[in-house]
Design goal:
By secondary structure, the chain is of the alpha/beta class. The protein is built from eleven helices and 25 strands.
């Protein structure tokens, strides 16, 4: 039951930062309204497994109302935020076809990040990203449809283009996507299209710098490269893309790769909601905050997670990672409770437990606590364990674990990777089955995908 005498806290975003803030405020002397465009929380590090048929969408998502069942001081509002009026202390939300005004005493903005195309419309039009469940499901349908089309094509060049997949960005998301795509083909689709002896799939990973996984030690970088190549992924380093089209890309080296599938994992920026706060923004559109995570120049408004810009003791901005969002969300909630009680607020100090990236079945690299370097099977087991612990809800953990065990031991059986149904006729604008001879080439200038720009890489080890 909502107590009208309690201060009201509005939280925008049911991602990791917003969720941890709301859970910390549950059963505290405040009234909480959690706002999101979706009625579920998504475990985004596993989106690539949904996209490559390893998991079903509901296995990495959990209903927000289910999370807060029984928490009498937490309400959920399904809608899209259209404006933040900091003077009137109101959030405008479009819901049920109308704009609803939700007042607040304290506001926590945790709307996360979106893909950054650096103002490049051709890149945006002709690529896929993995930021939401819809992104993952659309990519899955796209890939499966292309293989069906390739199976009935008599044009070998066209068939090769349909089954060539390009991943741009050498950070964890790029490596995970490339490895999973190749395993989907190598372990499953190759057997299902076995009657087509000439049909082969290619997965190409493009990185604009001289190495993969730039924040990692050299040994782990080298091991990641070797594991990708051993799997079958073609890795192109120090390469830049100068042209995107619906049926090909052109590299700075003038090499042309014919493909209908480009996965963009080399750029990210704060949610556009950051602009609604009307404060000067930092790099990637992030909102500058105090050590307490309150927005500089905006009383009673806090920003956490990917949207926040706060420098660590070394003068570097905290990365756009899930553990950072979790810890910032929880600290902000505690600070609001302290503030209401007239106590001093705490400052943010990040408890960093390391980073890791999976590459494929029994392939991964991990740098635990920035001391222990693991590769191969041990790193993969560590990655699996941390992700299972971080998943929301016991049912989700159990389902994911069963699927992973099944896929690991039964990957050569006909019904492994069972989530391969094409359930929609909706087509993604960039690449759906256009004839190669009808390409509208668009020159876009040079774009250099780097893992440094992939600052949103999400490791649950924190």
């Amino acid at each position: 039951m909502i107590n009208q005498h309690h201060p009201k806290v509005v939280i925008i975003g049911a991602g990791f930062g917003g969720l941890y803030a709301a859970r910390t405020l549950a059963n505290k002397p405040v009234d909480v309204v959690l706002i999101d465009r979706h009625n579920f929380h998504t475990f985004t590090p596993l989106l690539y497994q949904v996209a490559t048929c390893g998991l079903e969408a509901e296995e990495i998502a959990y209903p927000v109302r289910g999370i807060f069942r029984g928490e009498t001081n937490v309400r959920f509002l399904l809608g899209e935020v259209t404006n933040i009026d900091h003077e009137a202390r109101q959030v405008h939300v479009r819901t049920n076809g109308a704009v609803h005004e939700e007042g607040y005493d304290y506001l926590i903005v945790a709307a996360g990040s979106v893909a950054s195309y650096f103002g490049n419309e051709a890149l945006k039009q002709h690529s896929f990203v993995l930021k939401t469940l819809n992104d993952a499901v659309n990519m899955r349908h796209h890939i499966l449809k292309l293989f069906e089309k390739a199976a009935w094509s008599d044009d070998k060049a066209y068939q090769d283009a349909l089954t060539t997949m390009v991943v741009v960005g050498g950070g964890p998301t790029g490596l995970e996507s490339a490895g999973a795509l190749y395993e989907l083909y190598n372990h499953v689709l190759r057997n299902e299209y076995a009657h087509l002896r000439d049909m082969e799939a290619r997965v190409i990973l493009i990185e604009g710098t001289e190495t993969l996984l730039r924040p990692y030690p050299k040994y782990l970088q080298e091991q990641a490269f070797k594991q990708l190549e051993a799997l079958g992924v073609e890795v192109l380093l120090n390469e830049q893309i100068t042209e995107f089209a619906h049926d090909h890309i052109r590299l700075k080296s003038e090499r042309v790769i014919n493909t209908y599938t480009v996965i963009w994992s080399a750029g990210v920026e704060a949610s556009p909601l950051a602009k609604m706060l009307d404060v000067p923004l930092q790099k990637a559109g992030r909102v500058p905050v105090k050590l307490t995570l309150e927005v500089i120049g905006r009383d009673n408004i806090y920003v956490v997670g990917d949207m926040s810009y706060l420098e660590d003791p070394k003068g570097q901005p905290y990365p756009m990672l899930i553990p950072v969002a979790n810890q910032q969300g929880a600290l902000t909630a505690r600070n609001i409770v302290r503030r209401i009680a007239g106590q001093p607020e705490k400052t943010f100090s990040y408890d960093d437990r390391g980073i890791m990236a999976t590459i494929g079945r029994s392939r991964a690299v991990a740098w635990l606590f920035y001391k222990v370097q693991l590769t191969g099977y041990l790193a993969w087991v560590a990655w699996l364990g941390f992700h299972l612990i971080a998943l929301m809800g016991f049912r989700n953990r159990l389902n994911v674990f069963i699927n992973w065990v099944w896929n690991y031991f039964a990957f050569r059986l006909p019904d492994a990777y069972g989530h391969r149904m094409i359930l929609t006729d909706e087509q993604h604008p960039p690449q759906e089955y256009k004839d190669l001879t009808h390409s509208a080439n668009v020159s876009v200038g040079e774009y250099s995908p780097t893992s440094a720009s992939e600052a949103h890489e999400q490791s649950p080890t924190g």
